[in-house]
Design goal:
With 473 residues, this protein is α/β, with parallel strands linked by helices. The protein has helices at residues 15-25, 54-63, 80-89, 92-95, 118-126, 181-185, 200-209, 227-234, 246-251, 259-265, 312-317, 342-356, 415-431, 440-445; strands at 2-7, 33-35, 46-50, 67-77, 104-112, 136-137, 144-151, 167-176, 217-220, 238-243, 273-276, 292-297, 308-310, 337-339, 357-370, 386-395, 400-409.
Length: 473
């Protein structure tokens, strides 16, 4: 069955991967098919999607963050005359069950790239008199919702490519988004926050791409204040997290302001465990494997916070030998740490996921990318155990962006796989993205603009502060 999927016009790269992950979660056996309306650009909010049942479409719309609604399309056209002809040719067997006298209905008008007055909306609704509605109108709680959706031709249409010809859609609402979720979980009302807390909208998108659901165990090795795990718990998953900073996972800012209190704030099940753990030296037993259904994280890549690993500078350089902390000092001891480059961090993350994820489990994590004006191809980390299924870019500034990588485990972990992964890591480290090494990311993002550029117009110097790329967007 083909449905009209209407998206919110934001985070364009994240829209289709989210729907595809949710379709798989709700039982879609095969890869879903997409089709664009006539004369529409790929970034349009209107897409046709093929799903096996109306129930799956309804479940996707209800859970999705970026889907505005799913509709059974009754007709479309470039004009209202074409729309009328299209609706009249739509099979009566599909229309009449929703037009009966014992049901109530409501017709709404939605537009994109333009605004209509109340009189213009009423005029469009009154033009549908050829549809044999028998039931009563109910604006508050109708049995069936119908929508007219109009997108006009325009040279500038919310940043999209020019529309060659306007398109008008009419359809029955199958499912709609629950937009109460984001205001409830917004960060400004969160009990415990840190400098790298994940935005609620993005955290829910990551949880959807990881297919978080009841009965699944989700792990975040860089848990911080727990924003990502909160979203996974909201969808019913059991959660578990780790962080190298014991002050974050153990203490927070007091007994009522810590990671645990974030879960209690929303009435969610608290994590199975929060561990003080180093991603570079994980404490898992050698025989332990395949226990997590998904790993979701935002690795530290050195823009707002740099990565750290156990050992301290002197130990990592070999100046001093590792030591054992005396018993009487262990209670309040904070282990020393040293710099942890992203390229090493991602290698350790892939190694962890290869061992600890179940087959077909998902690894979802962010990866920073410098925005190249030449459009050169970006090389992403690889692992023999994983298949990359989605790449979604979030532009953060004119200088850099971050890409959400979604990987599915397709091969079981073994010593042979481990050796192949090590060689792939060495090749990646040697030949790609030297800026991932320690300190280079921060300097690339915050590098001052070229001071050699001359400006004859004094009005261009209103702000005396230096314009650092990524800071002023």
């Amino acid at each position: 069955m083909w449905f009209l999927c209407v998206f919110y016009h934001r985070l364009l790269d994240f829209r289709k991967p989210e729907v595809e992950a949710l379709a798989e979660l709700f039982g879609e056996d095969e890869s879903i098919q997409w089709r664009l309306p006539e004369h529409h650009h790929n970034d349009t909010p209107f897409h046709f999607v093929q799903l096996s049942s109306e129930d799956i479409a309804q479940n996707i719309a209800k859970r999705s963050i970026l889907v505005k609604g799913m509709y059974e399309l009754w007709g479309q056209g470039a004009s209202y005359e074409e729309l009328k002809h299209s609706i009249e040719t739509f099979p009566d067997s599909r229309k009449l069950p929703f037009l009966s006298s014992d049901s109530t209905f409501r017709i709404s008008v939605e537009t994109f790239g333009k605004a209509l007055t109340f009189d213009e909306q009423r005029e469009r609704i009154n033009s549908l008199t050829y549809i044999p509605f028998q039931g009563k109108v109910s604006l508050k709680n109708p049995d069936h919702n119908f929508f007219i959706m109009e997108m006009d031709e325009s040279e500038e249409n919310n940043g999209l490519q020019p529309i060659l010809q306007r398109r008008i859609f009419f359809g029955r609402e199958v499912g709609f988004a629950d937009r109460k979720l984001l205001p409830t979980f917004q960060l400004k009302s969160r009990n415990y926050l840190g400098p790298t807390a994940m935005d609620a909208e993005m955290a829910f998108l990551m949880a959807n791409q990881a297919k978080a659901a009841s009965g699944k165990l989700v792990y975040d090795p860089f848990v911080g204040t727990g924003s990502i795990l909160v979203s996974a718990a909201r969808f019913g998953s059991m959660t578990m997290g780790a962080d190298i900073d014991i002050r974050v996972v153990r203490d927070g800012r007091g007994p009522d302001c810590n990671v645990w209190s974030n879960f209690k704030q929303y009435g969610l099940p608290t994590p199975v465990a929060l561990l003080r753990m180093d991603n570079n030296l994980p404490p898992w037993r050698s025989g332990l494997k395949e226990i997590f259904d998904a790993i979701i994280c935002d690795p530290p890549y050195g823009v707002r916070a740099g990565g750290r690993k156990s050992g301290g500078r002197k130990i990592l350089r070999g100046t001093v030998d590792p030591y054992t902390v005396p018993e009487d000092k262990r209670t309040d001891h904070i282990p020393s740490t040293g710099a942890y480059s992203l390229v090493e961090c991602v290698h350790d993350l892939l190694h962890l996921a290869a061992r600890m994820l179940v087959m077909k489990g998902r690894l979802v994590f962010f990866f920073p990318v410098l925005r190249d004006e030449n459009g050169s191809e970006v090389k992403f980390p690889e692992h023999p155990c994983f298949k990359l299924v989605a790449v979604s870019e979030q532009i953060l500034s004119s200088r850099y962006s971050r890409v959400l990588l979604t990987m599915v485990k397709v091969e079981p972990y073994s010593e042979v796989i481990e050796e192949a992964a090590r060689l792939m890591h060495l090749e990646f480290r040697e030949n790609h993205l030297k800026w991932l090494e320690e300190g280079n990311i921060h300097s690339s993002v915050f590098k001052p603009s070229d001071s050699s550029e001359s400006h004859t117009d004094t009005k261009s110097f209103k702000d005396p502060k230096p314009k650092y790329r990524g800071k002023y967007v």
